[in-house]
Amino acid sequence: MKTGLSISIIIALALLNPIPSTAQEGPARPLEISVLAKTDFFKWREYSDDTKDLLVEDLGNLWGAGLRATYSLGSHWQFYADGDYFAGNVTYKGYIINQGKAQPYTQTNGYKGWEGSAKVRYNIGLSNKLIIQPTAGMAARQWKRDLITYGQFTSLLTYNEEYFLLSPQVGLDCKYSFNARWSVSISMNLSYPLISNEKLIFNDPAGLTAAFQQAAVQNPSLQSAASYDWTHVSVDHGKNINQMGEALVRFKQYSCFIRYQKYTLGKSSNGGTDGVSIYQPNSTNDILSVGLIYALIR
User: Is 24 part of any domain?
Assistant: First the structure.
């Protein structure tokens, strides 16, 4: 009788005064889905082939939104995927050809596109608070650049540039948890493109063809251009290693981050046809992003 009474008293006290524990935050779920809002401080540059002088520069802010998903497979393996959409206007600083001479020129260029990645992580616990995660996966980025090129057929050479990169990616993530609510993470990634392609899409390909046909009457070297399909011109860039680094602070389901990405595109192959050859010069793209993340499912 005394034993039963003692057990009843212990259970009642435990229910009224539970022992403090980080488990009060709830058990970890295998799936987490988050939404993201960000701004990108964007810089695009193009350089001359021989002297490496700066030819063109785009500077400005882009705005974006996206999704993140993490799925844990046991205590060690994780699958991670993300996707962002971004858009905005930037200030273009370059040159136009006026009466055979290059003159400085400024205008507004528009950018829009998406980027995403999918990778696996392997958790290595160095302590009860610190883990490192080697990562491997694929990353893709596609964007459209609206601009105007000037030359012999000024009104007809209006076009858009569309870029696409598809790259294997490796990296290392480090996470330090102060407690069940607060943590800080650092990520570093390197990627090398399997595909690094650009398409020049002309707004008036029929008018451009007609202009070349007219010009070919006086200049036979433009005969190929007169019969070329100017719907778009495709070129492949020189390939280089691209870098990304990110720092993130998290409190419960809220996170803020800062991320830096650098893309280096080498001089492209030649596109077009005999007499009218088109290529992309050496180019770089620096992106500094800051943003907020909210976990919807956690």
Answer: no
**What is the pTM (predicted TM-score) of this model?**
0.84
Structure tokens given for 178:
């102060």
In a domain, 231, yes or no: yes
User: Which stretches within 228-280 are classed as H helix?
Assistant: none
Paired with 199 in beta bridges are 162, 234
Alpha-carbon distance of 266 to 253, in angstroms, equals 41
- Structural domain span for residue 157: 31-297
**Domain CATH code at residue 142:** 2.40.128.100
Helix ranges restricted to H, 98-191:
none
Average pLDDT, 10 consecutive residues per value, the chain (298 residues) = 41 38 51 97 92 89 97 92 96 76 82 97 95 98 78 59 97 96 97 96 82 84 84 92 98 97 95 84 96 92
> Are 266 and 235 spatial neighbours (Cβ–Cβ below 8 Å)?
no
| Structure tokens, 118 | 């999918």
Question: Do residues 147 and 92 touch, judged by C-beta distance below 8 A?
Answer: yes
